[in-house]
Write a structure and sequence with these properties.
Chain lengths: 304, 254
């Protein structure tokens, strides 16, 4: 999705600034991006090719972007603020000794920018003044819009020193099978209120009944009750399930920015004043150790 | 093995962040402070590396005078040396911060020998610029990979792992190198009493900065519009279970 977001945002920004827009594609499957670019209104596609570019590498990709900016005479270089997008743009900006503004929400034609801080719980307005402006838009902040044109592809051959191979991916490990926290349709999250590692058994049972995954707050991972891969939050995973069931979670900002993408939130908490209860769509007031087993039992009863 | 870890003092994660009335700063009146979370893990990683293979861990920060608290905290976890670029208290832009870190690294390396490994956090929790470590690494012409959740040192190189949406990327970078680490690489320890006592004795080396401002200038901070939602209370205790399952059926997740 980030590719479609980048093309849409780039086309829109170029239109408002009165600039031409072109796409630079690097990496495996880059050839297929010409069609995607054309479909999203970007007619010029430059396909980077070089023997060093065997796989992703932050330095080699950053150098490729920097050289493309010079060769193509770009005054703005933009991408989407995924981890990879921010890393490559920072590499490119460092190589050009230009500023780079990460995670923008909006950019005015006079280069007054609104960007996110604290994972989105605080905003910052900045001015960006530079010969070449490097920016990323916050991931998921741009709605992809199609505007089909015919795209032409040109090969771009950067000059890359062999040393840049030092940070090319050497090997890849496969993902464990099954639904991930980021893509699960239901997430059952537990916080301090779960009380112990063993306390998560009831959350595991409910998650299994709903085909979902167990998540947790930062307090839980800091206590060593769950692995960090289960953490929902600014420093963990950002989730976007159909339903997030937040159990015994107070709803600190650090957790909320990871859960805010959920379509619906059901909070289960003994404290009806808890932040999570106030922000949730639905709530049950009570002890999760009584409420969750009762929900699981009711699901099993109805299934017969 | 000489390891440098670069940290930032930020309001402790979890607190609601308010802005001063002129929009020029975070209102710190009721806030506690901590090492930014990814960087706290970087400190733990530096200490563990030195425990495993020997050497020295050094901590560096660019920040207000109060950031001495975070340097002392890192020292209480086992870091032996500390260096400090004291700012005027304003939050420096990413280019200026990177220049100040670079000046400090060069000064420390000239005085005490070069670092085999420099650790940063993936991004700071507060300003989230995603670039200071990358700029420093480029200026030093050292390899840099961000988002790291596993480091193994073997001889003259480090094998490092970075989780992605689809699996894990594995890199083998020659030393000296710069890495940006993410929370989850380890579980940071708590300071022991002995650690706390030792941290008071650690000499903090101050380093002057002549770094100039970059091209990103803050105009003001503001809070996003609050999402107001009406919470539907489905009931209390175990008796709410039928209403909950009705809801699960209605939205089609059961």
């Amino acid at each position: 999705m980030a590719t479609e977001e980048a093309l849409t945002a780039g086309r829109d920004l170029a239109g408002r600034l009165g600039l031409e827009v072109a796409a630079l594609a690097i990496g495996a499957g880059a050839e297929a991006l010409a069609e995607v670019a054309g479909r999203h209104g970007v007619a010029r596609v430059h396909l980077a090719q070089h023997p060093v570019l065997t796989d992703f590498g932050p330095e080699a990709w950053g150098e490729t972007v920097a050289q493309a900016a010079v060769v193509l005479g770009a005054s703005v270089v933009m991408s989407i603020g995924t981890d990879l997008g921010n890393e490559v743009m920072a590499q490119a900006a460092a190589r050009m000794d230009q500023p780079f503004v990460a995670n923008c929400l909006s950019i005015d034609p006079d280069w007054k920018i609104t960007r996110v801080r604290w994972g989105g719980s605080l905003l910052e307005e900045v001015e960006l003044d530079a010969p070449i402006r490097f920016v990323t838009f916050t991931h998921h902040a741009v709605e992809p819009i199609e505007a089909p044109v015919a795209a032409t592809v040109t090969t771009f051959e950067p000059e890359l020193a062999p040393e840049l191979g030092r940070t090319i991916v050497k090997d890849r490990g496969a993902q464990a099978a099954g639904v991930t926290l980021a893509t699960a349709p239901v997430v059952v999250g537990g916080g301090r209120g779960v009380g112990s590692p063993e306390g998560f058994a009831v959350l595991e049972e409910l998650a299994a009944l709903l085909g979902g995954r167990v998540g947790c707050s930062r307090v839980v991972t800091n206590n060593g009750w769950r692995p960090h891969t289960d953490q929902v939050g600014q420093t963990g995973t950002k989730i976007a399930p159909d339903l997030y069931i937040a159990c015994g979670i107070s709803g600190a900002i650090q957790h909320w920015v990871g859960a805010a993408g959920s379509k619906r939130i059901l909070a289960i908490n003994t404290d009806k004043e808890a932040n999570m209860v106030a922000k949730a769509d639905y709530a049950v007031i009570g002890d999760l150790h009584e409420v969750i087993p009762a929900i699981s039992a009711e699901i099993k009863r109805r299934r017969g | 093995m000489r390891v440098l870890v670069c940290i930032k003092r930020v309001p402790a994660p979890g607190a609601r962040i308010n802005v001063t009335s002129d929009g020029q700063a975070v209102d710190t009146a009721h806030l506690g402070f901590a090492i930014s979370p990814h960087e706290e893990c970087a400190v733990e990683e530096a200490v563990q590396i030195v425990e495993r293979i020997g050497g020295t861990a050094t901590v560096l920060t660019v920040g207000p005078a109060d950031a001495e608290e975070q340097l002392r905290y890192a020292a209480s976890l086992g870091v032996e040396e500390a260096a400090f670029v004291v700012t005027d208290g304003a939050d420096w832009d990413p280019q200026r911060t990177a220049s100040a870190v670079l000046e400090a690294v060069r000064a420390l390396e000239a005085r005490h020998g070069s670092f085999d490994l420099i650790l940063f956090g993936n991004e700071s929790a507060d300003s989230g610029g995603y670039q200071v470590g990358i700029r420093v690494a480029h200026a030093l012409d050292r390899p840099m990979v961000n988002g790291i959740k596993g480091i193994e040192i073997a001889g003259e190189s480090a094998t490092v792992r970075r989780p992605t949406d689809t699996g894990t990327e594995i890199y083998q970078v020659p030393l000296p190198a710069v890495l940006g680490v993410k929370e989850g690489i380890n579980l940071p320890r708590y300071p022991t009493l002995k650690g706390r006592l030792n941290s008071k004795k650690v000499q903090i080396e101050t380093i002057e900065s002549s770094a100039a401002s970059g091209g990103q200038r803050m105009i003001r901070l503001l809070r996003p519009a609050e999402q107001v939602s009406e919470t539907v209370i489905l009931g209390s205790g175990a008796a709410a279970a039928p209403a909950v399952v009705d809801l699960l059926e209605e939205i089609g997740v059961v």
